[in-house]
């Protein structure tokens, strides 16, 4: 009869640290692409956008309670950022902060991509199973790409502040009413609007090109960040009109979802997240099993 032994605390700790180290190593290793061949991409059109959106609504209807749990934090974050802008005397950054959701939205939807993937395969698709996937080789590339979009978001806020300082600033506004009045009724205010919308569109286009299918691809296949980015850029290159229409749809939907007090994001973000997964399925040819 085998004797039961009590493990040495030091050896147990060493085993746990080794496990953590292996997980970290796998996450870092997953950032790179061992196979630099890109997946084949397809041409897509308006009919594909409609199909993806319809499938996104279907996924949301089927997984409603789980996806709401998965995304409820993001409206809270948006509300907290808005409160910070008021209290910190940074009212001029309120709109750039809200618009920034279009830049970092793909990061917020990572769990939703996995839910759609699992439902597609007939697997359990609750939020626990979805986030369990975001470990090991998947975690590293997702975090790396997410940090890239976060850098784009921070650069957008910096640019928005510079535009404000060159037009209505540099003194901050303490009243939202005064800020809106000067923005809408003065020459410098309209100059800020025009410049802000132009520069913001550039940042949005950059984020769209980088993330249109890259996050779903990383969830679906172990391709690494370079291949995921190259594939996303290729999809946009081959389908500029469809990509632009999709970006506009996402921007409008997120803007509507922020009214009132970001509550609408609880519905809008899941639908868009699921729809993005299905758009990826239409735009990228499936890999070999």
Automatic annotation (TrEMBL):
Keyword Transmembrane: yes
Keywords: Membrane, Transmembrane, Transmembrane helix
Cell division among keywords: no
Chain ranges passing through the membrane: 67-87, 93-113, 142-169, 189-213, 246-272
Domain of life: Bacteria
Record protein name field: DUF2189 domain-containing protein
């Amino acid at each position: 009869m085998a004797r039961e032994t009590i493990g040495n605390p030091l050896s147990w700790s060493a085993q746990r640290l080794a496990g953590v180290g292996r997980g970290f190593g796998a996450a870092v290793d997953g950032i790179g692409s061992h196979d630099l061949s890109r997946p084949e991409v397809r041409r897509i059109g308006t009919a594909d956008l409609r199909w993806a959106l319809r499938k996104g609504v279907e996924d949301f209807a089927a997984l409603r309670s789980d996806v709401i749990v998965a995304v409820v934090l993001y409206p809270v974050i948006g509300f907290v950022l808005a409160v910070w802008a008021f209290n910190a005397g940074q009212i001029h950054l309120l709109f750039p902060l809200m618009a920034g959701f279009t830049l970092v939205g793909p990061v917020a939807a990572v769990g939703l991509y996995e839910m759609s993937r699992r439902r597609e395969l007939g697997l359990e698709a609750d939020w626990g199973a979805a986030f369990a996937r975001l470990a090991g080789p998947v975690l590293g590339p997702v975090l790396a790409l997410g940090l890239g979009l976060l850098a784009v978001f921070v650069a957008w806020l910096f640019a928005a502040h510079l535009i404000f300082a060159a037009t209505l600033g540099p003194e901050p506004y303490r009243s939202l009413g005064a800020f809106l009045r000067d923005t809408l009724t003065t020459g410098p205010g309209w100059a800020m609007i025009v410049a802000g919308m132009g520069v913001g569109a550039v940042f949005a286009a950059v984020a769209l090109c980088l993330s249109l299918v890259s996050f779903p691809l990383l969830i679906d296949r172990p391709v690494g960040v370079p291949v995921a980015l190259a594939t996303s850029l290729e999809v946009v290159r081959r389908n500029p009109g469809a990509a632009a229409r999709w970006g506009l749809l996402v921007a409008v939907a997120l803007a509507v979802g922020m009214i009132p007090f970001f509550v609408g994001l609880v519905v809008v973000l899941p639908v868009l997240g699921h729809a993005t997964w299905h758009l990826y399925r239409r735009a990228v040819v499936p890999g070999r099993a």
